Amino acid sequence: MEVIGIVGLGIMGLGIAQVYAAAGHRVLATDGHDATRDAAKLRLRQSLARRVAAGKLTDVSMAATLTALEVVPDIADMGECDLVIEAIVEKLTAKQGLFVALESILRPDAILATNTSALSVGEIAGALNRPERLLGLHFFNPAPAMKLVELVTRPENAPDAVETARAVTEQAGKTVIQCADRPGFIVNRCARPFYGEALAMLEVGIPAVEIDAAMLAAGYRLGPFSLIDLIGADINLAATQGLYDGMNGNPRYYIFQNLRDQVASGNLGAKTGKGFVTGQSITAKPNDAIALRIEATLANEAASLLDEGDVSAVAIDQAMKLGLNYPRGPFESARAWGFGEIRAMLQQLEEKAPTHLKARYRISRSLAEMV
Question: Are 198 and 282 in contact (CB under 8 A)?
Answer without folding.
Answer: no
